[in-house]
Amino acid sequence: MTATLPLRAGIGLRAPHYREVLDDSPGLGWIEVHSENFFGGGTPLAMLSRLAERYPVSLHGVGLGLGSFDPPDAEHLAALKTLADAIGPASVSEHLSLNHAGGHYANDLLPLPYTETMLDRVADHVSAAQDSLGRRLLLENLSSYLSYPDNEMGEGEFLAELVRRTGCGLLLDVNNLYVNRQNLGVDVDAFFDALPADAIGEMHLAGFSERDGLLIDTHSRPVYAPVWELYQQALERFGPRPTLIEWDLDIPPLATLTAEAARADTYLEACTR
């Protein structure tokens, strides 16, 4: 694999902007799409193939459920491999979440307990997925609204050990980390201290919503000032990384997304001077 994401900001490309990007070819650093939206082939895959000729592509999965108790679904993995082989993405990533057990699936990205037993299980799942895909996966830290009382380690330690055991990479979602700090009191410095810097392949930025004092990772707003500040801290700590602007609900005009990406680019440029 030789494709890599450029050291620029990209945008999450969603359905309302497909046609505009195809017709106008705006100067985007790179694009991310949700893998599962293209498993059916046909017109969507043909469109993505055209986009991949113009922009580096990151495939971002939401359904593999590598943190689940059961192994990854073989059909899901096969569909992801077919898509990745067809597109030749610069990056393939997944949420580190729990979403299925005993043949039942939850339409949510559920958190998992950070225990040695779960670490063994997840490491097996990640290794199996990477072997099946023939690619390194980047795993994303999750936004969470609860913490398990029997946790035996912090999330950063869990991720670091997963990298050591499987050779996977990490996708550092800065907004998720901020949400967890505000909701659960996560120690950001301890989280950063635990992460292996060279494993971080991407960063994500997004906007949250607030409900009854709880921050919800809705990807429905511009990036808020404290998230930009945390992003600056992450860049100072780990160096510049390809950075994505995510916006999945109440999707604004494309110009709004590109303006957010341009702002992220100013942070990246300042970090490389």
Structural description of this entry:
The protein is α/β, with parallel strands linked by helices. The chain has a single domain (9-272), classed as Alpha-Beta Barrel (TIM Barrel). It is built from nine helices and twelve strands. The strands form three sheets. Strands 1-2-3-4-7-8-9-12 form an eight-stranded parallel β-barrel. The model has no long low-confidence stretch (mean pLDDT 93). InterPro entries: MbnB/TglH/ChrH, Xyl_isomerase-like_sf. Pfam families: MbnB_TglH_ChrH (PF05114). This is UPF0276 protein EBB06_03870. Belongs to the UPF0276 family.
Describe the protein's topology:
Elements: E1 9-12, H1 18-24, E2 31-34, H2 42-52, E3 57-61, H3 74-87, E4 91-95, E5 98-101, E6 104-110, H4 116-133, E7 138-140, H5 155-166, E8 169-173, H6 174-184, H7 188-194, E9 200-205, E10 209-211, E11 214-216, H8 225-238, E12 243-245, H9 254-272
Parallel strand pairs: 1-2, 1-12, 2-3, 3-4, 4-7, 7-8, 8-9, 9-12
Antiparallel strand pairs: 5-6, 10-11
Helix pairs in contact: 4-5, 5-7, 8-9
Large-scale geometry = globular
Strand content: 15-25%
Uncertain segments are none
CATH second-level architecture: Alpha-Beta Barrel
Average per-residue pLDDT, rounded, comes to 93
Count of discrete alpha- or pi-helical segments spanning 4 or more residues: 9
- Count of DSSP strands: 12
The CATH top-level class label: Alpha Beta
**CATH domain topology:** TIM Barrel
What's the helical proportion of residues?
Answer: 40-55%
Helices and strands, in N-to-C order? EHEHEHEEEHEHEHHEEEHEH
SS content category: alpha/beta
N-to-C CA distance: 29 Å
The biggest sheet amounts to: 8 strands, parallel, barrel
Q: Kindly report the name of the CATH homologous superfamily.
A: Divalent-metal-dependent TIM barrel enzymes
Spatial extent as radius of gyration:
18 Å
Number of domains: 1
